[in-house]
Design a protein that fits this description.
- 2 copies of one chain form a homodimer.
- By secondary structure, chain A is of the alpha/beta class.
- Chain A is about 35% helix and about 20% strand.
- Chain A has 3 domains: about 50 residues, no CATH class; about 140 residues, 2-Layer Sandwich (Nucleotidyltransferase, domain 5), CATH 3.30.420; about 140 residues, ATPase, nucleotide binding domain (Nucleotidyltransferase, domain 5), CATH 3.30.420.40.
- A 5-stranded mixed sheet of chain A has the order 6-5-4-7-8.
- In chain A, helix 1 crosses helix 2, helix 7 packs across helix 8 and helix 8 packs across helix 9.
- Chains A and B meet through strand 10 and helix 8 of A and strand 10 and helix 8 of B.
- Chains A, B: It comes from Kribbella antibiotica.
- Chains A, B: Belongs to the ROK (NagC/XylR) family.
- Chains A, B: InterPro entries: ATPase_NBD, ROK, WH-like_DNA-bd_sf, WH_DNA-bd_sf.
Chain lengths: ~350, ~350
């Protein structure tokens, strides 16, 4: 019934191939448990209309938390994945773990407060962080966040939530989001490339997010030969950027200038794309995906990147996949976090089972 | 019952959780269809021993064909994958498609003749070829075999076989073989690296061979930046190789000399491994596998390659997987071809179904 419009018992019986009386018994049980709610007739029909039922998406909620370099973003959704509240807080790139976790706590508090909910009403939380996430939920191998390598966001949040708390890499979550609601909803084999001040990747193969044996899949950027580590420097160090421009706005200045005909800016972008293409080609040649989705801050300037990137990949690869720009922007990590939390609930429900909403 | 020792009806009933009489009916049906055979008591037991049953592996057979640069290898196996006959023919690297297909035909004829079987008794054939295999079963994107890009091995063999004929890339088949019977039987996430005069890769993720959207997964070697294309030249062009050594034996000379203390040979191998490691690191960083299996001709000298390769990967990667040498040698492609043919039969049996052996 989830994801479907309200339906009568007769319609449900047809849909699942059970008898009408049998379906009626099951539906009444689901209503009693809180999984399904009754949709009362709106009175517009003549005669006595049949009662309709729909999935009770408000039975439970999940949180998706993006712990970024510059921001904390918390999304709260129902069991259908509809976002009912969000809260965003800026955070300094140089913030230490305590300050960053404080911001996470505050953003979650604000989000729950706005939704008038208690932590016990949250069924699952997924936290997105930068760097590969190991089996303990930490980013011990690598993280650009100061002092963050030893931090366990799951342990920190366990003081407040009794539900499952998952931790996942930001690029992997963004890839999940693009397949769920973004630019790659039709594809099962997806390479997501985060293009911005940092460059990263998330991989979906056969419809499933691939974490790798140790959680470090997609970390091609660590290989110097594919030139991702230095690629953004072409843009950051573009000649002519006025010293009055804030460090965070240098790239936007370069893209704007390139559109206005500034040769230095165009050259910087051309060199950036050439380097971005090498690492992207390594992913494409390894996996031969259907789609490459370009996300991250620079994807707002996809008009200046997509065509030259496709040309470079044509030169470097045996077969060039479709290349699309992200349609989700800066919310993609938190959205993917919601999806991973919901998927976790699904797998719990269909393996170990879980308590019904009204028996919790 | 497949892969299990002979069992009595009582044992089978226990195994599947059915009643003894019900199991008896099913087993008699399987015997009548030819899927199961009766194992007569050997008379060593006192009293009247219970009749035992086992899977009839000889009910059907499959062929695995390796169309290599230097050789054609045909393996014939029963439904358990036991090789009952094989036939190997040398072929010139320069052979044109007609000559190479002639050799394939001859090797298949010899193999069937030795087994006293007709083509109609073969249930599936898998052909391994070099280069990525597209959706038509051709290697249109790339092949090192002269004139082979437009050849369809499936169409060629369809003149002789009415069963399904599959075509697959050689490195992908070798990867399958290593997981089936070779060095990676315990792993689900495997990068297979073919190390020889050519360098290639096959990928198994979550226990499944990954072909890629267009069949070109694993073709990282096409990216110049990862240095696979030139890596073997360090060994081929090692200073001091006597002109009397045949081109195909130059690598063996270098490995032998390195073991004997020849500095030039050791240097050539060190440079080779440094280049091999870059492409391998690209695969490892992309997929984060549990195991890297080193196969191909050079894997016979794994004693000289594995340790320095692990050191280089330690330098280049975030997390270094286990590195193991292939245990299958030159038969791995044809063995993988058998496994793919058997898997195809399984998927047919469990989806569309297939005629019972005795009703064919």
């Amino acid at each position: 019934m989830r994801g479907q419009p309200p339906a009568t018992v007769t319609e449900l019986a047809d849909r699942v191939g059970m008898s009408r009386p049998g379906t009626d018994v099951v539906v009444r049980g689901l209503v009693a448990d809180g999984w399904v709610k009754v949709v009362e007739p709106d009175g517009s029909t003549v005669g006595r209309p049949a009662r309709r039922y729909c999935f009770n998406a408000e039975a439970g909620h999940v949180l998706g938390v993006d712990v970024g370099v510059h921001k904390i973003l918390v999304l709260l959704s129902d069991l259908e994945g509809h976002v009912v509240h969000s809260h965003r807080l800026p955070v300094e790139p140089s913030a230490d773990p305590a300050a960053r976790l404080d911001a996470v706590d505050t953003a979650i508090t604000q989000c729950l407060k706005a939704a008038k909910m208690r932590p016990t009403q949250i069924w699952a939380v997924t936290v997105g962080v930068t760097g590969p996430v190991d089996s303990t939920g930490r980013t011990t191998l690598f993280t650009p966040l100061p002092g963050w390598a030893g931090v366990s966001p799951a342990e920190h949040l366990a003081a407040r939530f009794t539900c499952p708390i998952l931790v996942e890499n930001d690029c992997k979550l963004a890839a999940v989001a693009e397949r769920w609601q973004g630019a790659a909803q039709d594809a099962d084999d997806i390479v997501y490339v985060l293009a911005g001040i940092r460059t990263g990747a998330g991989l979906i193969i056969d419809g499933t997010l691939r974490r790798g044996f140790g959680g470090a899949a997609g970390e091609i950027g660590a290989l110097k030969a594919v030139r991702w580590d230095s690629a953004p420097e072409h843009i950051e160090n573009c000649p002519g950027i006025p010293s009055s421009i804030h460090a965070d706005d240098r790239a936007a200045w370069v893209f704007t200038e390139a559109r206005a005909g500034n040769r230095d800016a165009s050259t910087a972008i051309r060199r950036y794309v050439k380097d971005l293409a090498v690492g992207t080609a390594a992913l494409v040649l390894t996996l031969d995906p259907q789609v490459v989705v370009l996300g991250g801050g620079f994807s707002r300037s996809a008009d200046l990147i997509l065509d030259p990137l496709a040309r470079e990949l044509g030169r470097l690869c045996l077969r060039v996949p479709e290349i699309r720009a992200s349609s989700l922007g800066a919310d993609s990590v938190a959205l993917g976090a919601l999806r991973v939390a919901l998927d976790h609930l699904d797998s719990q429900l269909f393996t170990d089972g879980m308590p019904a909403p009204l028996t919790r």
